[in-house]
Amino acid sequence: MADLSLDLNEDQLQIQKWVHDFAESVIRPAAHEWDEREETPWPIIEEAARIGLYSFEFVANAFADPTGITMPLVNEEMSWGDAGIALAIFGSTLGVAGIFANGTQEQILEWVPQCFGTPDDIKLAAFCVSEPDAGSDVSSLRTRATYDEASDTWVLNGTKTWITNGGLADLHVVVASVDPALGSRGQASFVVPPGTPGLSQGQKFKKMGIRASHTAEVILDDCRVPGSCLLGGKERLDERLARAREGRSSSSQAAMATFEASRPIVGAQAVGIARAAYEYALQYAKERKQFGRAIIENQAIAFKLADMKMHIDAARLLCWRAAWMGKAGKPFSAGEGSMSKLFAGETAVWVTEQAIQVLGGYGYVRDYPVERWHRDAKIYTIFEGTSEIQRLIIARAISGMHIQ
Ligand SMILES: Cc1cc2nc3c(=O)[nH]c(=O)nc-3n(C[C@H](O)[C@H](O)[C@H](O)COP(=O)(O)OP(=O)(O)OC[C@H]3O[C@@H](n4cnc5c(N)ncnc54)[C@H](O)[C@@H]3O)c2cc1C
């Protein structure tokens, strides 16, 4: 009767070690350089593609793990190496998730492999939702998609902002409003295939952290895509719009479940950063001597490290629980996906700050990696739903009320 186990299976242990070795030998040594350059680390992406880590097959297999734990494991190890480079490598999976969430089987088979390409011809993807005036409030998107029946094409117009791989990607998945009066229920997702005229990159942002990951505006100016690029197809969209216009229930519950299921993967990235900082600070505290003894021999420092370790383990367990729930199709009745991302993100910010404190002045300078980890950690309280929005989701789930 001992069904519950937190032991990783052989496959998971093997994948974890393989990704860790890559993170340790390839990503970590390159982290400082690409943070300073603030450019896409192409040689590292190429290496990841060469060994099969950046590939449709690997990501599909990792997603297929029936326990749900493999994707969090992979993401923790990658971000332990460096979160910016990890996002430069795996940022395409945001676009992939957008296709999986809304596409037909045919569309998934057509477009998802094109998000990765091959080691000789690497492709990137981007997922474009956020706009200058629509961040947390995704129901107010202004980007419009209008249907041109004569040519069976959709015409996209608008500006997307803060897009990971924006403009750099070969394939963009764009969420646009088909019927603004219906808010988020009047929106649809479109694949913009490589080289489509009318899509261009706007400004590239200079960021506080995860600087190896490209973040930019995406401008859509009369960007025409074939009717087949509407994810889910026209018939399904028309039915959905008709239901929404009549005030009948829509698929927003399904969309919410998709987001809840992807949050522990993002949370695991934050756990990876926190673990990197904790391990570094622990080692440093054992070696650094002041007043004739190692600084860890002071409870003030040792207790900090104890708390850091406890928070990291708790964050990881929340991520694993939510990942397992998502895979098992359990309802996220208390916003468990949001809990995992929220707690892991805030843990990463707190742990990396504690790590700076443990290193003292050495923690504050760029010769040591700890200040970079703190800068990188901060994004995890902002993107993929801010901490405030995660708290709203949890509060609404536990109360059953529309908390504002
Ligand atoms: C590096 C980076 C990469 C990104 N990558 C992508 C990407 O690939 N694709 C994409 O579509 N987007 C991406 N984003 C956008 C990201 O998801 C948004 O920045 C985020 O959703 C917040 O939106 P906003 O920045 O407009 O902030 P706002 O929504 O303007 O929020 C500002 C503040 O107000 C708070 N707030 C807002 N509404 C409420 C409320 N109802 N209750 C309480 N507090 C509230 C927020 O929590 C926040 O603290 C990225 C952002 C960054 C910085």
Report on this structure:
With 404 residues, this protein is an alpha+beta fold. Helix content is 51%, strand content 15%. It has 13 helices and eleven strands. The chain has helices spanning 10-37, 42-50, 56-64, 70-81, 83-90, 92-102, 105-111, 234-245, 252-287, 299-328, 336-359, 370-377, 387-399, and strands at 117-118, 121-122, 125-128, 144-148, 153-164, 171-177, 187-192, 199-204, 215-226, 289-290, 293-294. The strands form four sheets. A four-stranded antiparallel beta sheet has the order 4-5-9-8, with no helix packed on it. A three-stranded mixed beta sheet has the order 3-6-7. Strands 1-2 form a two-stranded antiparallel sheet. A hairpin with a 2-residue loop joins strand 1 (117-118) and strand 2 (121-122). Helix 4 crosses helix 5, helix 9 (252-287) packs parallel to helix 11 and helix 9 packs antiparallel against helix 12 (370-377). The model has no long low-confidence stretch (mean pLDDT 96).
